[in-house]
Design goal:
alpha/beta; Rossmann fold; 2 domains; 9 helices; 7 strands; 42% helix
């Protein structure tokens, strides 16, 4: 299925083959806690391992979250949505035989086609490192649409980035971020040679990918305004967070 409208800039940034091929290795350098965040998402979901679940993975990328979900829940299915066809192909490669339980949808999840899932059919909507590309209004709309796919009592969980509300605190967090990237980068990687080079690279990357994280307070307010109930923060370290909630019953 192709996207119903022209891919926005944040999707186009993930379309080049070299960017997609390097994505997971780069995430290990820039976001080494990503796997822990995925673990938290799976820990929070209150389902039995053999339940016949349906999850919708928004911005599936290379399929890490979808793969871990399917590994934990042996009878589950996933609808994996991503605007980049190249990312979807990478996800299929990662998932291997697990792909038999996945329906891939190439679509900008800001304009989800109705056939993604029937109303009230999904047990969970999950997403990892995707929603920070959205404006507050886009995020509110996406969450509201996601609630339409969920059963009453279904879960929406987001593992993503936030920014600090205080500029001084944000500045210090960014310094720690850069120091961590430099320390983890393999020797010889010219992008992360020193703090100044790394800062320039990250700034350019985020401009290209149209990053616009909100503060945690703004994120939680957007989720509540969209109709998500019992919104809670389940994990946070510096600028990385897992939050979510449930769809209220009838």
């Amino acid at each position: 299925m192709s996207a119903t409208r022209k891919h926005p800039r944040s999707i186009a940034a993930y379309s080049p083959r070299d960017r997609v091929a390097a994505y997971d290795a780069d995430m290990e350098i820039m976001h080494p806690l990503r796997r822990r965040m995925v673990e938290v998402v799976l820990e929070v979901l209150p389902f039995g391992r053999s339940e016949p679940l349906l999850a919708i993975d928004l911005g599936t990328g290379t399929g890490l979250l979808a793969a871990k979900f399917l590994e934990k829940f042996s009878r589950a299915r996933v609808t994996a949505v991503d605007g980049s066809a190249a990312m979807v192909e990478e996800a299929k490669s990662r998932l291997g035989k697990l792909s038999e339980r996945v329906r891939f949808v190439v679509s900008d999840f800001r304009a989800l086609p109705p056939e993604v899932a029937a109303a009230g059919s999904a047990d969970a909507v999950i997403t990892c490192f995707a929603l920070h590309h959205l404006t507050a209004e886009e995020k509110r709309t996406v969450i509201a649409r996601a609630l339409g796919y969920l059963k009453p009592g279904g879960w929406f969980l987001n593992a993503d980035l936030v920014m600090a509300g205080d500029p001084g605190i944000e500045g210090r967090i960014q310094e720690l971020r850069v120091e961590g990237v430099v320390s983890r980068a393999p020797k010889g990687d010219s992008r992360f040679r020193d703090n100044a080079t790394t800062r320039r690279f990250l700034d350019k990357l985020e401009r290209g990918e149209k990053d616009r994280p909100l503060t945690l307070a703004e994120d939680l307010r957007v989720a509540s305004d969209a109709g998500l109930a019992s919104v809670e923060v389940f994990w946070k370290e510096y600028r990385e967070v897992v939050w979510g909630g449930v769809k209220a019953g009838p």
